[in-house]
Amino acid sequence: xxxxxxxxxxxxxxxxxxxxxxxxxxxxxxxxxxxxxxxxxxxxxxxxxxxxxxxxxxxxxxxxxxxxxxxxxxxxxxxxxxxxxxxxxxxxxxxxxxxxxxxxxxxxxxxxxxxxxxxxxxxxxxxxxxxxxxxxxxxxxxxxxxxxxxxxxxxxxxxxxxxxxxxxxxxxxxxxxxxxxxxxxxxxxxxxxxxxxxxxxxxxxxxxxxxxxxxxxx
Length: 218
Ligand SMILES: C[S@@+](CC[C@H](N)C(=O)[O-])C[C@H]1O[C@@H](n2cnc3c(N)ncnc32)[C@H](O)[C@@H]1O
Known about the structure:
The chain has helices at about 5-15, 20-25, 30-40, 45-50, 55-65, 80-90, 100-110, 150-160, 170-175, 175-190; strands at about 75, 95-100, 115-120, 135-140, 165-170, 190-205, 210-215.
């Protein structure tokens, strides 16, 4: 390989993971806000270069199971709106989005699929009443450094009986057994039923996988 070819190759590898590595090192909410504000402009390019598949997997899985796709959905941690777009493509018609980063929300607005978008730190109490949303989606959001394992029961509490939630846990997050332990405790207490579970490609470009879940509040 010539010197120029080597340089080109390392430049494209750097572009492929300009922000991705940092996403797995976030530890506080302030870090997360600053990090995603800075990533907003290039997020879609970097993520699609790496073949981001989890939103489409989640949207198709939920659409297969959903009773009425016109019921309201909240896309939690909607980012630039890739997840909302996947939901709209899968047939959901009434989608709101919330995120910590205003710069990410500004990008989400341009996707044209959200009814309302609002800024919120989801580690704080949720600014809406139980049952407002029949569907909750948290795609690429419940993760080490972003949201703690207790986020799973907190979100389930917001669902009406009969409501559905779809979410993903990537390989880094699955290393912490507390995330799945919270889920299994909710199954054991008969609070939820897990209707679908699948381990598959998350970001194939960096060899990362994710487990996705569709659950129903009993
Ligand atoms: C990896 S992105 C996923 C975005 C989108 N769901 C997708 O699939 O492309 C994670 C998102 O979670 C948001 N986030 C991180 N911590 C948060 C918090 N405490 N409250 C609300 N959103 C948060 C970030 O701003 C970011 O947009």
